[in-house]
From TrEMBL:
Residues 983-993, 1032-1058 have a biased composition (Acidic residues). It comes from the Eukaryota. Residues 540-880 form the Nuclear condensin complex subunit 3 C-terminal domain. It comes from Linum tenue. Residues 994-1007 have a biased composition (Low complexity). Its main location: nucleus. This is Nuclear condensin complex subunit 3 C-terminal domain-containing protein. Pfam families: Cnd3.
Length: 1058
């Protein structure tokens, strides 16, 4: 065979091989199309209903079995699945496809065919890293669904799981919240593995930083029950989202048994859950308490449950738990169980012999107290319902009330004698049964003392309680120390309240309780007046006196008794305030404050001694005296407190003051004649109070004075003697106290001031004037070091936002409907404006002041100044201008032109000012007219602003000049960040050499000004659009640097997946 024949044969063979290959590819393509068609048909049928999934899973399995190879099936399967990655909305059909695909993948893995699962997971991992957010969302959704459905015995290679874990770790930080949710859900399957401890650390970190409530909820459901996670999970009971708080109690119920939690954590969970403001959350906490802790851990024994809560320490939690279970009906009450079980009668010849008493545990005592209180409340409610209804319904309510009263009678002691014996036995048992004794004392309010014998027995018992001396102990140095707070009867306010409630139930006649207590006081005061009593006897006598003064309703009820009020003051209270023992001084000062509240006008002796104790006394005495003085000022008025010391100088006290008098506490004698408000104002600046109880916020002088000044300022309309010129100084002090770093740990003070700031501007228009005058402008004020100026800027920025919120608070209505009807028939807008506050106290005045502050910054600015101006601009756009304030609107538009001359290089500030200008133009009734310079200066004068309006700056145009930007090379083309930065620097240099100005003359006619404005707007429209687009592009590039931009983008992304 010749060479040409051989070449011809080889050529023919290559052609035949190519034809066979093409035929094979055509057959393969045809088979793949048929395979995709069958898979797509199954998908179409599966998306209609979940009921068809089981049958369609079998059909899809048969398609896989008939396929030439598993990889060919996987390729066709992924090809058919691809359109799902373009569906943004979570429609029901799309969700059915996701569940169907996940179920099929898990079914194949269970049957041993893990190759398809691995191919599908690899395909989804590639999609999870796509730039398209919808593709990432669908991929993470299916990965999480597959992982959660996959059985534990499924054989999947470790490499695949490693890839899944690493990919989901990246997606946990995705900017779309739904993607983060499914990524956390996927990682929850691996969080319990010891080798994947970094997953738990990642979830704990994300829990504290996550902004989306749904993601936080998913993280909580994924966390394992460990000591490290329990605290973080319980901290989420304070989450702002009720869905997250509800999830917390669901997690605790399923993962944390009762015995695995400490007593503090148990009580904290119940306290927050049962007292939650959301009914959904409180019901979830009740379900945890009832279904898990009460039924499973305590076997429906309420006393056993109370033992887990340490009711002696957390009494209010124990009461809340019992009330919740009783109202829910979880505790079944029987007439066989009662307090009578603890009272065993002894048969003797003497009928007055006390019965044998079995002492109660704390859990039993609080259980019976809450049960009796519940039955009494329920009986009273049913009785009230029966009284307001008729017929069968009234009879039914009356029967229920009778049943509850009968059950209550069976539970309570049979007689008052038995009750007194029961309580006395617990009191005599010592300090270990003090809690049970107090609970039993509270039961006395539910007994019947209608007969004289019962009142006599109970009255004698009360006399013994009042005469019972204070408990004390001897410390290591041999000094006697009183147990308790040293102020109340028994050393405990709760004990004193329990004795008071029993006394009010026994002595119901007018003046009877005062007579009984004053008889005891006169007896206890004898050794004190004779100066033979020790400090314990002094404190005991003053504690009983304080109990009387705190509960007496009128001063005349004290007159004509065993000891007269004047004698009580001169022989007991004033000498006690001068006693050598500090505890005696403290309780005496408290009684002096209570005594002054009962007087018609505060007496000179009381006020003088309180001022001496406040100025010269140690820290505990000064704090108590300060509280007493503030109470007197709130009750009688600051002027009456000052008149008590200087009754002849009333005209001098009523003179208008422009500032507070500076006081020096080192020279205490010179401060005795100072006015009350001067003392408080100077007390805030004093740093040597020497608070000895720093852990107790109620004993810190700054907190006491700040709370008192807030109350006085809030009720300033009732105290006309306080000059209005002092209101801004007081408000400034409170704002400084609120934002001060020194008071950051005073949480109670912060809470009180936050409530004050919320209500203060809503009570009166005069309060808004005070708020407006508090604008802490920096420009023109004395400067200082860089740190001082930085703190001033920070304070001004915070205060500006704070003041805008206060200015936006609406005023409470002060006129009735009749007065409003008689005010005229004008428009509602004019009526509201005429009766409302003036410009000085409206938010328009605050806006002009902030704008003048911004316009005052000229020349080259530092980075800190630019940040400060940008923050003020963001605050400025929050202020709303009322259409009735046309002069203020035109003045503001004129000031905007000054602002743009100063901040036109600041991109963020330009955006804020542009929004402000557009809103002002929309509310201006005559935008083509300019505000006259004389009118502008008049408004500035009312606002006490010394600002020179430049006549050369246009007044009518509200067009904000945009930063010139070079046009883009093509429509829709995107620049790189580096190219955009180079162009910005180049254009900035061009702006410095040739600044942009608006060529409109201020003195031209109205028509010329309008025509030039229109021409300018038309010429710059293109540049404005380009500049705006460029700003938006830069914002996208700098999304990590701008919180607002990041938040907006996240919100826009999340809305598409609802």
């Amino acid at each position: 065979m010749t060479m040409s024949d051989k070449e011809r044969c080889r050529k023919d063979s290559r052609v035949a091989e190519t034809e066979r290959r093409d035929m094979g590819e055509m057959e393969a393509d045809k088979e793949e199309r048929q395979l995709r068609s069958r898979i797509a048909k199954i998908f179409d049928e599966a998306k209609t209903s979940n009921a068809t999934h089981i049958r369609k899973l079998k059909d899809l399995s048969s398609v896989l079995a008939k396929a030439s190879s598993p990889r060919q099936f996987a390729a066709a399967f992924c090809r058919v699945l691809t359109p799902l990655f373009c569906i943004q909305r979570r429609t029901s059909s799309a969700e059915r496809i996701v569940r169907f695909v996940s179920a099929f993948a898990c079914a194949r893995a269970s049957s041993g065919c893990d190759q398809f699962l691995e191919d599908l997971v690899q395909f989804l991992l590639v999609a999870s890293a796509a730039a398209n957010k919808t593709a990432r969302f669908r991929a993470c959704q299916m990965i999480s669904e597959i992982i959660m459905r996959l059985p534990d015995d499924a054989e999947v290679s470790d490499d695949v799981w490693d890839d899944v874990i690493e990919c989901m770790k990246l997606r946990v930080r995705d900017k779309v919240s739904f993607i983060r949710t499914f990524a956390v859900r996927a990682l929850s399957r691996f969080v319990n593995d010891a080798e994947n401890s970094d997953i738990l650390d990642l979830l704990l970190e994300m829990l504290q930083l996550e902004q989306s409530a749904e993601v936080r909820k998913t993280i909580l459901l994924a966390l394992p029950p460990t000591n490290a996670t329990s605290l973080l999970i319980i901290d989420c009971t304070l989450d702002v989202s009720e869905a997250v708080r509800k999830a917390v109690y669901s997690v605790i119920a399923s993962k944390f048994p009762l015995k695995s939690l400490s007593i503090k954590l148990r009580t904290l969970i119940l306290q927050r859950g049962l007292g939650d403001r959301s009914i959904i959350v409180s019901k979830e906490c009740l379900r945890l308490l009832r279904d898990e802790w009460f039924s499973k851990s305590c076997n429906y024994d309420p006393k056993e449950l109370l033992k887990y809560l340490d009711v002696e320490t957390y009494e209010f939690v124990g009461e809340a738990v019992m009330d919740a279970l009783l109202k829910d009906g979880s505790i079944k009450l029987h007439d066989k169980q009662s307090i009578q079980e603890y009272i065993v009668s002894t048969v003797t010849e003497n009928e007055d012999s006390p019965p044998s008493i079995q002492l109660m545990e704390p859990e039993s005592a609080i259980y019976w107290k809450t049960v009796c209180r519940f039955l009494q409340t329920k009986a009273q409610a049913k009785g009230s319902d029966a009284a307001v209804t008729t017929g069968t319904e009234a009879a039914m309510y009356a029967a229920e009330a009778s049943d509850n009263n009968d059950l209550l009678d069976k539970i309570l002691p049979a007689t008052v004698f038995d009750y007194v014996a029961l309580v006395r036995a617990h009191i005599d048992a010592g300090a270990n049964y003090r809690f049970a004794s107090r609970q039993l004392l509270l039961l006395g309010a539910m007994l019947d003392f209608s007969d004289s014998t019962s009142r006599k027995i109970a009255g004698a018992f009360l006399q013994d309680l009042l005469r019972r001396p204070l408990d004390f102990e001897i410390d290591e140095t041999g000094i006697e120390v009183v147990i308790g707070d040293g102020l109340n009867l028994g050393g405990d306010k709760d004990w004193a309240d329990a004795v008071t409630s029993l006394a009010k139930k026994v002595h119901v006649a007018i003046g009877e309780i005062e007579s009984a207590v004053l008889g005891v006081v006169e007896e206890l005061a004898r050794p004190c007046r004779e100066r033979t009593a020790d400090f314990k006897q002094w404190m005991h006598c003053l504690a009983v006196t304080g109990l009387l003064l705190q509960n007496v309703k009128s001063f005349h009820l004290l007159q004509g008794q065993a000891i007269q009020p004047s004698e009580l003051l001169q022989s007991l209270l004033l000498p006690g305030a001068k006693h050598a023992h500090l505890d005696v001084q403290r309780v005496s000062v408290r009684c002096l404050g209570l005594f002054g509240l009962l007087e018609k006008k505060p007496s000179e002796d009381v006020v003088k001694q309180l001022r001496v104790s406040f100025i010269k006394g140690p820290a505990p005495i000064s704090t108590m005296a300060c509280k007493a003085l503030i109470d007197l000022a709130l009750w009688h008025g600051p002027l009456e407190v000052d008149k008590a010391l200087r009754p002849g100088d009333a005209s001098q006290l009523e003179q208008i003051k422009m500032a507070f008098t500076a006081l020096n506490f080192l020279d205490a004698d010179d401060n005795m004649d100072a006015e009350f408000l001067d003392l408080l104002y100077a007390g805030l600046d004093r740093t040597d109070w020497g608070n000895s109880v720093e852990s107790d916020e109620s004993e810190i002088m700054q907190a006491v004075i700040g709370e008192g000044l807030g109350k006085i300022l809030l009720l300033s309309e009732n105290y006309t003697s306080i000059p209005t010129s002092l209101h801004p100084l007081l408000l400034a002090k409170l704002i400084e106290l609120y934002f001060s770093d020194e008071t950051s740990g005073l949480q109670r003070l912060k809470q009180c001031l936050s409530v004050f700031f919320e209500h203060y501007p809503t009570l009166s228009a005069n309060h808004k004037v005070t708020v407006r005058s508090m604008w802490p402008a920096i420009f023109g004020n004395a400067g200082g070091t860089a740190v001082i100026v930085s703190n001033l800027r920070k304070h001004a920025t915070q205060a500006s936002r704070f003041m805008v919120q206060m200015m936006h608070a609406p005023l409470y209505a002060v006129h009735d409907e009749t007065e409003n009807a008689e005010s005229g028939t004008g428009s509602v807008e004019n009526a509201n404006h005429s009766s409302g506050p003036s410009l000085e106290c409206r938010e328009e005045g605050l806006a002009v002041r902030i704008a003048a502050e911004l316009a005052s910054f000229t020349g080259k600015r530092t980075a800190a100044e630019r940040s400060y101006m940008s923050a003020l601009c963001r605050t400025l756009v929050l202020i709303q201008f009322h259409p009735s304030e046309q002069d203020a609107i035109r003045l503001m538009r004129r000031l905007l032109n000054h602002l743009t001359a100063n901040v036109h290089l600041e991109k963020d500030a330009m955006k804020e000012l542009k929004l402000m200008a557009e809103r002002l133009e929309s509310v201006d009734s005559r935008p083509e007219e300019a505000l006259a310079l004389e009118q502008a200066n008049l408004i500035l004068g009312k606002l006490e602003l010394d600002f020179n309006l430049d006549v050369n700056v246009p007044a009518a145009s509200c067009t904000i000049p945009q930063t010139p930007a070079r046009p883009r090379p093509g429509r829709g083309a995107s620049r790189s960040r580096r190219r955009a930065k180079d162009d910005e620097e180049e254009m900035s240099s061009e702006e410095e050499s040739s600044p942009v100005s608006v060529p409109v003359a201020a003195g031209s006619s109205r028509s010329q000004r309008a025509s030039k404005t229109a021409a300018l707007t038309k010429m710059m429209s293109t540049a404005n659009r380009v500049a705006t687009a460029r700003i938006e592009e830069d914002d996208e590039d700098e999304g990590e640097e701008s919180e607002v931009t990041s938040q907006d983008s996240d919100d826009s992304d999340e809305e598409e997946f609802f």
